[in-house]
Amino acid sequence: MTNGQTDTEVRHIEQEAAPSRFARGWHCIGLEREFLDGKPHTVTGFGRKLVVWADSSGAIKVLDGYCRHMGGDLSQGTIKGDEVACPFHDWRWGGDGRCKQIPYSRRVPLRARTQAWPTLVQDGMVFVWNDPEGKAPIPEQAIPRVDGGPGTPGWTDWAWYQTRVDTNCREIIDNMVDMAHFFYVHHAFPTYFKNTFEGHTATQLQKGVNRDDMRPAEVAIGAPKRLGNTSVATYHGPSFMIDDLIYHYEHGDVRTVLINCHYPVDENSFVLQYGISVERPESPEDAAAAERLADKMVQTVRIGFEQDVDIWKNKTRIDNPLLCEEDGPVYQLRRWYEQFYVDVADIRPEMTDRFEFELDTTRPNEAWQREVDENVARRAAEAAEAATSDELVSQTQGA
């Protein structure tokens, strides 16, 4: 008997319903350039419909999507001046949430006000602030400027992609501490892995090398061969990660910024977004090559996230994961993440106190290297056997 359990006692999965409350913090809803076309846009998030548009000065505005008059869909309306006009009765709503004009009425009712969402436009991205308590943005949760990226001379524009994932967004957060899945799901080979949680941030420091037995996905899209990578990825709040990522290629290092972010559609689905910007080489003739490389890299990242999605759509929610010694600090990460789902007054010190954990990669790396060597040897034997068979066929035909 160990820890009160016999070796025949069955471990049961525990799971509660995903919280219907949505995380407090800044959430990226897309690139600014997508909202500057003079039209209202629909964003379905936080369990409701939002309308997003740019006023005459180009400032991004976000309101609840349904008109408080008779429930018309504002995202199906038009932009008139600085206001979004409801397609039902032409009530004009300003970005502050107040109805500014009703063309057929002498006056606007005093109570004609809808919810306006605090917005932030930074580094070419649009953020909205969500707080179940209805409070203003917290300075400590401010999104930092990207070091590099499209706002910096010599960097490519964002190569951007988004997709809807039908599961709770805690699944993507768990990846922050899950070193082993990088080998088995993404065919990577981590050699160093450390997590640090403090305040509103959670960081993953990872170093890795290329796997000689696994590159079919990259080959298929014509991506260059990587030797390895160094990654410092930090969540700033519950949903926005900046990954300062250096790819090590045969021709040299390439510095990139990877954005990995999401916003909840409802408690059981979220919109996943990611983008890459690449530092261009100094020689002007290679500038176009940098743009092509960024596109190839975002395709590679897309493959990686699609591999995650394949896992998520088939796995079950688990609140009591059974961990081994070489797994990461899943419970500590979830405790950090919980701070965004409780009232500010209920945040406990253990949710925000500094926590560091460095995984011992000795055993995983030994096991993974054996698997890689076995795969390489098997493929070499299969190739040699195929070559011998082809030669015999050729000799037979020649005879």
From TrEMBL:
A molecular function GO annotation: monooxygenase activity
A Pfam family matched in the record: Rieske
InterPro entries from the UniProt entry: Cholesterol_7-desaturase (IPR050584), KshA-like_C (IPR045605), Rieske_2Fe-2S (IPR017941), Rieske_2Fe-2S_sf (IPR036922)
Classification via Gene3D superfamilies: Naphthalene 1,2-dioxygenase Alpha Subunit, Chain A, domain 1, Rieske [2Fe-2S] iron-sulphur domain
Domain Rieske: 26-128
UniProt-annotated stretches for the region Disordered: 379-399
Binding partners and assembly: Homotrimer. The two-component system 3-ketosteroid-9-alpha-monooxygenase is composed of an oxygenase component KshA and a reductase component KshB.
Name of protein: Rieske-type oxygenase
